[in-house]
Structure formats: C-alpha cells, structure tokens
Amino acid sequence: CPRLTVMNWARKFEMEELSEDPRESAVFVDPVADLFFGIYSYSIGEFKSADEYFKRFSEKVENYEVKVVKSPSVVSKLGIRMFYEPVQGDTVIKFKELSSERINIALEKAKEMGIPVNHTDILVSYRDPEILRLFFGYRHCKFLYS
User: Fold this and answer.
1) pTM value surpassing 0.85
2) What is the spatial distance between Cα 14 and Cα 83, in angstroms, rounded to a whole number?
C-alpha cells in the first residue's frame, strides 16, 4: 500500500532511521508521495527538487491550503508528522502556494511572531479522493463477500 509505505518512510525519517533515499525506491504514483518527497527534499536542503515535487502535487490536487502551525510539542522534522498522525496546534499563517520560497517566507514570519522554530510545523490540507475510494471499496467488498 503506497500510503502505508509513505507513513513508514515519514516515521523513519523523523526518527533518523531512514537508511535509503525514498525517492529512488518509489514505484507508485500518488499525490501523497509527491507531497512527502517535496517535504523530504525541502528538509534535506534540496529546494529545487522540493519545488519539482510540490509542482507535481499541485497538478494532481487542485485545491489545497498550506498552514504554518504553532505546535504544542517539539517538531524535529518540519512537515513530516502530517503523514502519520493528526497535527495539533494553532494555525498562525495560511497560504495557497506550495513552494520552498513560500515556506521559507512563512517560517520567517512565524519566527518574527515569536514562535520558536522547534514548535513550528507545516500542514497541507486538501481533500483526498483516495479516502472515498477506500471507503466505498470496503463497502463494495463487504456487500459482495458477506
């Protein structure tokens, strides 16, 4: 399952246990994977690569919103937590363009607002059609095989 794979990569990356570059081993096409690869690339300082992945994500998902969140817990890797658990905290900045430059500007604004860097996180909100497919697929299988 691509979503489970991305979730595992995210947890391993946050815990500093990711041994290989996940971008090289991915064989599936999924907007969540593009978003993860963008955030991953951004986190390791490859901004040009991050922007390419962000563009691919933006082409697949029409409506999305990027939020800078003041997290109550310490954030070790920016934007990674959203791939495996709900992000907690107050939204302090919202924007609609996903790019390395825009993230840098928003993080600078959050810093000016007095939010500690290690309590600042990124959350990308969008409607995920995969959830509907999984839900109705489950109901369809349940109906057929019950």
Assistant:
1) no
2) 11
